Amino acid sequence: MLNPSLNAYRPDLADKRLQGQVEAERFVEAYIMRVKVPVAPLLSTPDGAGMLDSQALLGDVVKVFEQTDAGWCWVQLDKDGYVGYMPTNMLGPFSGEISEGVVAGDPTHRVSAVRTFLYPGPDLKFPATTFLSLGAGLMLGGEVETRGTHYRQVLNLPNPTDKPTWVVAQHLRQASDYAADYVSVAESLIGTPYLWGGKSSLGIDCSGLLQLACEMANISMLRDASMQEQQAGVALDISRGLPELVRGDLLFWPGHVGIMTDSETLLHANGYHMAVAAESLTVALDRIAANEFGALRTIRRL
């Protein structure tokens, strides 16, 4: 049976590419849109009360299979294939002009700072209009220097008056310029609040932390810990106890994942700290076994 989290099918509607593999009343071909807000939720149901399964960031591509009169789209994220419901008003055209000076298209840059503010003009003294998370995709216009700080015009996220916004240039890197070490990216998110289903620097969960860090380093990674446990790197033998661990090793429990920053320290987004935290692996193993996910199940090395 196909995983419904990664394949768009319901009894009444399904992705046309799945015809012959699943049963549905109708099969449709998706049309392509982009996320046009800083962070968009991907929910389990189209009513605002469903579980937050994941999030998408500005510029992310989504395949849309259904748009309802109630303001919801049934979508599949292009990056990792995750399926769910997203508010229609958070999606925009895949490409082209949206309004005067505001366009959609392939991001040329990404936010490389943990988070950054957007301004209505090229000056940090302006009131910030919103924030962007690490990993958000931007299309940029001109550059202006104000009192020694360089700003770039953001073309794919308008301010409330539908005019382009501005961002501090040093918080960005070209979309093709990837981080050398995904663990360093994850470490930069220490202190970020824990949010089930979160995948931004405003709130993040354990598998979202791993996925976002890997994306910034150009490493493909699925969304859920159970998927990552099957996909990531190669499994290490733990039948005779813990092997010698190195930076970047991934530790999996049922429904949870953590990243080793060295041979003794575990970095993970977790409900105990309600944040991304680094702690002694020995302490974490004892607490998790006693109170949370049970015994360590898998170790994988990228």
TrEMBL record:
Matching Gene3D superfamilies: endopeptidase domain like (from Nostoc punctiforme), SH3 Domains
Protease listed as a keyword: yes
Signal peptide positions (record): none
CDD domains registered for this protein in UniProt: SH3 (cd00174)
Transmembrane segments: none
NlpC/P60 domain segment(s): 176-299
UniProtKB keywords: Hydrolase, Protease, Thiol protease
PANTHER family given in the database record: NLP_P60 DOMAIN-CONTAINING PROTEIN-RELATED, PEPTIDOGLYCAN DL-ENDOPEPTIDASE CWLO
Protein name: NlpC/P60 domain-containing protein
Lineage: Bacteria, Pseudomonadati, Pseudomonadota, Alphaproteobacteria, Hyphomicrobiales
